[in-house]
From TrEMBL:
InterPro entries: ABC_Gly_betaine_transp_sub-bd. The keyword Signal applies. Residues 27-50 have a biased composition (Acidic residues). This is ABC transporter substrate-binding protein. Keywords: Signal. Pfam families: OpuAC. Residues 62-322 form the ABC-type glycine betaine transport system substrate-binding domain. Residues 1-21 form the signal peptide. Residues 20-60 are annotated as: Disordered. The lineage of its organism: Bacteria, Bacillati, Actinomycetota, Actinomycetes, Micrococcales.
Length: 324
């Protein structure tokens, strides 16, 4: 089944990321503040950056940083907030908002101003018929379809992709190395993932269209939570949608199946921000974060947060002190 067959999937116009779980209201989420001020700003270039002197110039006031409701996104939001505060910008945080549908609504109604995003998930949410997969093409696709008043800044090298994961025992027993290898077995297997994975174009529907997979059952699990890994290890699900930076993959000797048809597009971490909150100070601070983030150091920080149980704000502080 070719990648272009995903074009038929019009059902998922309101799909969240890989990276996002259930609902929530920004007004009900956790909030904290730090004091500061901001400087001049600029206009948008093709790569999502801005030039000095354009929209958002001058003091942008308080910037409300939001996050989706899974640990990695909370960590990234804490990094963004601390970097902006260090630069003298007044910041507050609204964490664990929920899925993409919820936090995109918050960005559009102004209840939050900035959120860590993932290019592929955002691009697919904005256009379910997306067929491009490379980092540059996916970024361009996302930028082209952004709602008015929002913009993407510089993408980072750090990438956290959706993946299908099985235990090493299952991989050995069924001879699995890629998603395509699941085709003769899927009818006997239970697939687990976040609720949104059942309807997103690169989820259950995409697996059916692109790889011809018809699983026996889909079991809804929390995004980015230990429940998914536990369900896989305990045999409650046979295949699971797990983010590639999850330290539990290595800790449990799990096998990430290759994606030869590129169902899962590039997922570079990128700041998504209200244009009116962009000035030179804000952009420079967030671009420095993007310059410093890599998949490797993001995965290391996730070990600290998820495995060791450290406070995401403290891990964010340590990252900034060491890298900026």
């Amino acid at each position: 089944m070719k990648r272009s067959s995903i074009l038929a999937l019009t059902v998922a116009a309101l799909v969240p990321l890989s990276a996002c779980g259930g609902g929530g209201d920004p007004l009900d989420a956790e909030t904290s503040e730090s004091e500061g001020s901001a400087e001049d700003g600029g206009s948008t270039d093709d790569d999502g950056s801005t030039d000095d002197g354009a929209a958002g110039g001058g003091d942008v006031g308080e910037v409300v940083v939001g996050s989706a409701n899974f640990p990695e996104n909370v960590l990234l939001a804490e990094i963004y907030a601390a970097a902006l505060s260090d630069a003298g910008v007044e910041v507050s945080t609204t964490l664990n908002i929920g899925s993409r549908e919820t936090y995109m609504a918050g960005l559009e109604d102004g209840s939050i101003d900035l959120i860590p995003e993932y290019t592929g998930g955002l691009a697919t949410y904005l256009n379910p018929e997306i067929t491009v997969t490379s980092s540059e093409e996916v970024l361009a696709e996302a930028q082209e379809n952004l709602p008015e008043g929002l913009q993407l800044l510089q993408i980072s090298e750090a990438e956290d992709k959706d993946s299908l994961v099985v235990t090493s025992e299952t991989a050995d027993e069924l001879g699995l190395t890629s998603i395509a290898d699941l085709e003769p077995h899927a009818g006997d297997l239970v697939l687990g993932g976040p609720p949104e994975f059942e309807s997103r174009p690169n989820g259950v529907d995409g697996l059916r269209e692109v790889y011809g997979l018809e699983f026996a059952q889909f079991r809804s699990l929390s995004a980015g939570a230990t429940l998914t890994v536990q369900s896989l290890v305990n045999g409650q699900v046979d295949v699971a949608n797990i983010f590639t930076t999850d330290p539990a993959i290595e800790e449990n000797d799990l096998v990430v199946l290759e994606d030869p048809e590129s169902l899962f597009a590039a997922q570079n971490v990128v700041p998504l921000i209200s244009t009116e909150k962009v000035n030179g100070t804000v952009e420079e601070a967030l671009n420095e974060v993007s310059d410093a983030l890599t998949t490797e150091n993001l995965t290391e920080m996730m070990v600290q947060v998820v495995t060791e149980g450290q406070d995401p704000a403290e891990v964010a502080r340590e990252f900034l002190d060491e890298n900026l």
